[in-house]
Amino acid sequence: MVPDAPKPWGARVLFVLSAALAALALRLAWEEPVIAAVLLLIFLVTVGLRLRARRRTRELFASGDV
Fold it and tell me: I need a labelling partner for 6 at 20 to 30 A (CA). Which of 14, 21, 48, 64 fits?
């Protein structure tokens, strides 16, 4: 990709959404730390379960028992 080329709309939208999500997370952490902690726990559990499933799938395919 050329550095001076305009970025696609999708990248801009994702950037704005991630900034909004970060602002929301900071606001929740400041005003409602219990809710922020619960949401963080839910997020971490979800990510952990996805990583575990991905690792198990990779191990299954590597074993050849498919």
Answer: 21
Q: How confident is the model at residue 1 (pLDDT cuts 50, 70, 90)?
A: low
Average pLDDT over residues 39-43: 93
Domain residue ranges in the chain: 33-66
What tokens were used for 33? 């730390």
Quick one: three-class SS letters along 20-57?
HHHHHHHHHHHHCHHHHHHHHHHHHHHHHHHHHHHHHH
Contact indicator for 44, 52 with CB cutoff of 8 Å: no
Residue type, 17: L
